[in-house]
Design brief:
Distance between the termini: 49 Å
Order of helices and strands: HHHHH
Low-confidence stretches: none
Structural class: mainly alpha
Shape: globular
Strand content: under 5%
Number of domains: 2
Mean pLDDT: 82
C-alpha cells in the first residue's frame, strides 16, 4: 500500500476526503421549506459532488500510474497555503477579479506550469468566465474591485 502513495496520490486523497466531509455537511443539514432549486445548499451540493468526482478520478489516476514515491515539496505547500490566506484576506478589499488572477498565476507557477500563454489564458480566462457566470447569468455579484468598478 505504501508503494502506491506518492505526492500526487496523497494530495488527491486529502482533496477527496475533504470533499466528502463538506458534501456530508451540506446534505446532512435540516431541509428548509423551499423547493430544491431555491434551497441555499443547492449549488454547493452540485459543486461538492463534482469536487468529489474529480478528486476520485485524480486519486485513481495517481494510483494507476504508480509513479515513484516522492516526498512532498514542503515549500510548495507553504506557498499555496500563504496564497490561499492572502486570497481570502484580499478578496473583499481588491475584488474578485484582481485577486483571482493573482492567485491563479501564483498557483500555476508553484505547481510547475511554465508555459506563459497557458498561465495567461487560464489566469485571465477562468476568473472572467466565473465573473460573467455570477454577475451576469446568476445575478449574484462578486466583490467588485475599487480600481475596475465595471468588473
Amino acid at each position: 500500500m505504501l508503494a502506491l502513495i506518492n505526492e500526487r496520490a496523497l494530495v488527491a486523497l486529502v482533496l477527496f476526503l475533504t470533499g466528502i466531509a463538506l458534501l456530508w455537511t451540506a446534505i446532512a443539514g435540516g431541509t428548509p421549506d423551499l423547493q430544491p432549486a431555491f434551497d441555499p445548499r443547492f449549488f454547493p451540493r452540485i459543486v461538492l459532488t463534482l469536487w468529489v468526482a474529480i478528486a476520485a478520478m485524480e486519486l485513481a489516476a495517481a494510483v494507476w500510474r504508480r509513479e515513484p514515491s516522492l516526498e512532498p515539496a514542503a515549500w510548495r505547500i507553504g506557498v499555496l497555503v500563504i496564497a490561499v490566506l492572502l486570497y481570502a484576506v484580499l478578496f473583499t478589499r481588491l475584488g474578485f477579479f484582481i485577486t483571482s488572477v493573482a492567485f491563479c498565476i501564483v498557483s500555476l507557477l508553484v505547481l510547475g506550469q511554465r508555459h506563459i500563454l497557458t498561465i495567461a489564458a487560464f489566469a485571465i480566462g477562468a476568473p472572467t468566465m466565473l465573473l460573467i457566470l455570477f454577475n451576469r447569468v446568476l445575478k449574484m455579484p462578486l466583490p467588485a474591485s475599487p480600481f475596475f468598478w465595471w468588473l
